[in-house]
Inverse folding.
């Protein structure tokens, strides 16, 4: 059992939780809590840490999954130091990052109607995680992000995905313009959520392969990004609201596509 | 200028930011940042605090609004202590709480199609604020909350409303069952968002007065609350997502009602 706050493995976990550079270097990220451990694919888990006071309970609950994994018990004090949360839940694991290839994702395009969400510089980790969770629920095939979007492997983002991080393909791209043009060449219709869009979001039909572009929380989409889309759409708003939360706007668009596809089928 | 960290006014602001009991006792809440100050109705502002380093700039930008208000400059160190944020923006004000009467709100029901969102025990301050922001944008008439819902006047909630806190009527109620029965008696159709709902949310028409019930983030709606509704509805989900974020679910329902009412008119 690890009881020293200065143990090198403990310091390594703290660095992984705190620094994107460290996560990228090691190709790992930190996952906390029973739910997120339970949903993590076992073959991607490189190490598990249990807090002493709940280790027995966790072994009882997750014995089968834990049996094949490298597992270490640490004192509660050490666990609290590793944890990113105020009320640590006593289980934490390191998970190998997954890299997806947008080309492979697009290969599916002839078989089905695809759905993408493309994010420009989303900054709030909670928003980003919520968008992943919502994207999975709406049946999206991938989340595409500008390189200045928050890091998906930030512990707060991971938590907000509620497990979708393991299941929704994604990629970060240097140039959104290039990926938008590529999507269009591949037959995906691209709609930019933009306050200046003349059409309401429900004026279009999203039965065919569709991508929605969502801009940064404070500034919305860059004009040059919006200009690459097939069309600009807006979500009609009442009252004196200037814009919607980015995760809310994403949800309304993704679920409108989902709704249209569902009723189109019945 | 206040330069002492122990000044009693400064301590009073800190208490208002930290404690619901103190906010309720004084009937005030704390608002931070130029945007939220700019949107606050001047007649409800009881005091303004400016950080020394930006006081001149703020007086330039908000001179007209500030002129009729009780305004105090404080040292940057004092301001940082009062502020709830990591990067204080140099302007903070105390705003008088507003109390709404659900009876008065319902008096409007014969004149228009009403829209309500009813929240059971929502805990996350950010979610609650985002629901207010979205409710205003969707044209909701009021947000009704169970007494165990997070405090709207929590600084984090206030920030997330992006100003909707000043404009969307709301009330906390002891018994959701009673208010649901009252809404139904007044001709409002009440729909409970519930994973067990057989109907999809878009199976119903929301042109007439409508209320949506949304449950707690972790547990969803209580069975006894859901049972009071006219109908239970679910949002069809793909993948392995167990539930949606409460603000996301609220948004999808509110904007479906908004969409139906908009296209119904055209």
């Amino acid at each position: 059992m690890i009881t020293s706050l200065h143990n090198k493995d403990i310091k390594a976990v703290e660095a992984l939780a705190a620094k994107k550079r460290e996560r990228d270097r090691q190709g790992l990220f930190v996952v906390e809590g029973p739910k997120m451990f339970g949903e993590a694919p076992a073959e991607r888990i490189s190490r598990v840490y249990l807090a002493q006071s709940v280790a027995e309970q966790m072994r009882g609950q997750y014995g089968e999954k834990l049996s094949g994994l490298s597992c270490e018990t640490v004192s509660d004090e050490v666990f609290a130091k590793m944890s990113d949360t105020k009320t640590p839940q006593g289980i934490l694991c390191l998970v190998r990052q997954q890299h997806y290839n947008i080309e492979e994702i697009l290969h599916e395009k002839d078989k089905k109607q695809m759905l993408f969400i493309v994010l420009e510089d989303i900054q709030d980790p909670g928003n980003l995680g919520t968008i992943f969770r919502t994207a999975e629920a709406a049946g999206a095939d991938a989340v595409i992000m500008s390189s200045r979007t928050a890091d998906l492997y930030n512990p707060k983002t991971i938590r907000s995905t509620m497990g979708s991080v393991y299941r929704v393909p994604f990629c970060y791209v240097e140039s959104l313009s290039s990926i938008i043009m590529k999507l269009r060449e591949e037959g995906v219709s691209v709609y930019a959520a933009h306050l200046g869009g003349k059409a309401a979001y429900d004026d279009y039909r999203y039965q065919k392969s569709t991508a929605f572009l969502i801009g940064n929380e404070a500034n919305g989409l860059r004009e040059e990004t919006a200009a690459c889309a097939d069309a600009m759409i807006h979500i009609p708003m009442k009252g004196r609201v200037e814009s919607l939360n980015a995760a809310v706007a994403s949800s309304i668009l993704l679920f409108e596509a989902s709704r249209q596809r569902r009723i189109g089928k019945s």
In short: Chain A touches chain B at residues 39, 126, 130, 133-134, 136-139, 160, 162-164, 167-168, 200, 202, 235-242, 244-245, 247-248, 251-252, 255-256, 258-259, 262-263 (CB under 8 Å).
